[in-house]
Amino acid sequence: MNSIAPLDDERSGPPPLPLAGQAPPMRADAARNRARLLEAAARLVAERGADCLTMEAVATAASVGKGTVFRRFGDRTGLIMALLDRSERLYQEAFISGPPPLGPGAPPVRRLEAFGVATLRHLDAHRELLLSAEPEACRRLDFAPRHVRVAHVTALLREARAGGDTELLAESLVGYLDVALLHHLTQQRGMTLDRLEAGWQDLVARVARPA
Amino acid sequence: MNSIAPLDDERSGPPPLPLAGQAPPMRADAARNRARLLEAAARLVAERGADCLTMEAVATAASVGKGTVFRRFGDRTGLIMALLDRSERLYQEAFISGPPPLGPGAPPVRRLEAFGVATLRHLDAHRELLLSAEPEACRRLDFAPRHVRVAHVTALLREARAGGDTELLAESLVGYLDVALLHHLTQQRGMTLDRLEAGWQDLVARVARPA
């Protein structure tokens, strides 16, 4: 299972759930080096696009050996996940413990509506990086951030007493919040993000009401 | 846009929709050679699994040069699509012009139910090959057989007067009929195909009723 958490050699054992505030402390110099590599990587993406983000290019930009980049991030996907880590944590915090309607306190259907909109905007903001890091078909859905989304939607559907096979209904809803689908609909079929957000509200209204 | 139709050098211009009975005639010797290559490819998959299906392995098995295989099928995806061509045509014929409830003549919601079951079984039967031919994220959804499915589901939702943004509801339903999702749910999460089929019926009942 992939994890959104970066693959750090300073860290022992696999990270648990990719939630905010769970990273063990890192030595100060290791943290500084890591931050410097991520800064170089972010600059590369901003200047030349996600396609040009390679382990080699990051090593050159940060004036370190290629091996250092591989040791720090494992592979290109690990590097991209580390780049996305901060915004993924903020996004997860918002729906797990932030203010309503996205966070706890609002009715479940209202939270589902807000969750879809937040997710579509998160995917849209990082579309290029997420697309370029997408794993092959066999591993694509066995991916920590996606597990967190399915668990969240399942819990809200249960709370809304939607009935039916809640897990499969959640899979179906989360399938709408997919970066490749968003890319296809907005870039290849010319739909607006507003239209996708309205489509999500309609889908939730249909799926979440008791059968 | 990918097409399910094989890339034949005997054919001029891009093929139209990948429906049954539309392939232009092929010279007898070209057709024989193509059939021989496909036979070798099918044998390779049966004996060694989809992962071992390479252009080189097919050339060796059929005792021809690698260039012949590339000229005939374009690339590995083209080869796999040619292998899947016959069953894709039978599957498409069944829902476009076959007997009800899958084909015309049954009420639209009944046809949607039958369509999902037929598609899940089609995907399950060819899971390995379809997974190994899946294009990268940016092109994955811009794929002829998927366009045919979305158009079919859109038409049935309109006929059922489901209301809402019919195109987006169709995208969401077709998203459930995805080979990577089927693989994840059956192979990585241990769900049965029966459960997925029941989940589809429930999803259709919710999505197709007027909002």
TrEMBL record, chains A, B:
Amino acid composition bias (Low complexity), ranges on this chain: 19-28
Keywords: DNA-binding
Protein name: HTH tetR-type domain-containing protein
PANTHER family: HTH-TYPE TRANSCRIPTIONAL REGULATOR RUTR, POSSIBLE TRANSCRIPTIONAL REGULATORY PROTEIN (PROBABLY TETR-FAMILY)
Domain annotation HTH tetR-type: ranges: 31-91
Span list, region Disordered: 1-28
Domain of life where this protein originates: Bacteria
Residue ranges of the annotated DNA-binding region, renumbered to this chain: 54-73
InterPro entries in alphabetical order: Homeodomain-like_sf (IPR009057), HTH-type_TetR-like_transc_reg (IPR050109), HTH_TetR (IPR001647)
Pfam families named in the record: TetR_N
